[in-house]
Amino acid sequence: MVSRETEEDVFSCALCGHCCEGRGGIVVSRADLARLCEFLGLDAESFESRWSARRGEKMFISSDENGCVFFHKGKGCSIHAAKPDICRAWPYFRGNLVDSESYALAKDFCPGIPQRQTHGAFMRQGLSYLVGENLAGSSRPDEAAALQVSDLLEALAYNMGKR
Length: 163
Prior knowledge:
Shape: globular
Helix content: 25-40%
Number of helices: 7
Largest sheet: 3 strands, antiparallel
Number of domains: 2
Order of helices and strands: EHHEEEEEEHHHHH
Number of strands: 7
Structural class: alpha+beta
């Protein structure tokens, strides 16, 4: 039996904010920082001192007991138009793309991921989305590791060439 992907099989954000409630930290790359500063009317130093913390070479948006400080229950994300790439990429994180168990957990957690979608379909859609939206990371130290998928893209291109 051949499974056909339909429009219902594609991720559709429910704007629930579940992904904003995590404690892992939202990485802010140099490009993110420039976009956020322009959106908020702040210089980089002001943004960093008010809204972020550094761990090693990475900058993270501050969080409180509810998760990201920019997410407000019932109101949503106050920086949605300028949100960091890692937020734009959800749920297409590397772990969810390469590991079916991680993907299953994400499906249970996120109402925007269709329950009937297969991991293979999710991976294909995710890589296509990351490339199309220019979100695929390039392994720079300031980028989120969850977006570093260049090896997956190379493997996919290699496998496509063998067909």
